[in-house]
Amino acid sequence: MEIIIKPLTEELAADYFDFLDNRAFTDNSPWGGCYCTGWQMTKEQEKTELLDKMEEGFSYGDENFVRVLREIVIRQITSKALQGYLAYVDGISIGWCNANSKANFPLESANGFRLYAPAEKKEKAVVCFEISPEYRGKGVATALLNRAVADAKAEGYVAVEGFPQIHTERFEWDYTGPVSLFEKAGFTAITKQDGSIIMRKELK
């Protein structure tokens, strides 16, 4: 099986939606309907751009909610606030990884994470993986992470960080990737707290 990795661009937005709408959550994942927007938004942005609009007559998961959420994603892709990689097999998008400069994240994301670091620190963060159920365990996440690390090094970044949670078996809410994924790619643990861990790979 040949896995092709491509950076997310405006031209690939249709493939991004195709993956998340049609293949990502076909196993009834609790993250069904997620478009990976929360990392790039502040809590205030989430409130004004999404939650406040729900009071105008729509709720989670309905057609209007999805429409507004897609509008947010399109803005994030166009502005390059949302960055990452799509994985393809036979020309079909089957995986996603959210990877971005830490300078592009807000001081506190809508989901509560604090990832921001000044641009001069030259650090990237890999924060989310989603793989089509039938392609899990076949090296797709590894290919996505390896590409993110290789590009970060080529772009002059000094380190990449990941944020897995500690579990002894697969956990359906575990969108940040398992510890073993990062260990295999040469990351080492630098901080452990409340069941989560920060792993880091130095590039220079």
UniProtKB/TrEMBL annotation:
<dbReference type="GO" id="GO:0016747">
    <property type="term" value="F:acyltransferase activity, transferring groups other than amino-acyl groups"/>
</dbReference>
<dbReference type="Pfam" id="PF00583">
    <property type="entry name" value="Acetyltransf_1"/>
</dbReference>
<feature type="domain" description="N-acetyltransferase">
    <location>
        <begin position="36"/>
        <end position="204"/>
    </location>
</feature>
<dbReference type="InterPro" id="IPR016181">
    <property type="entry name" value="Acyl_CoA_acyltransferase"/>
</dbReference>
<protein>
    <submittedName>
        <fullName>GCN5-related N-acetyltransferase</fullName>
    </submittedName>
</protein>
<dbReference type="InterPro" id="IPR000182">
    <property type="entry name" value="GNAT_dom"/>
</dbReference>
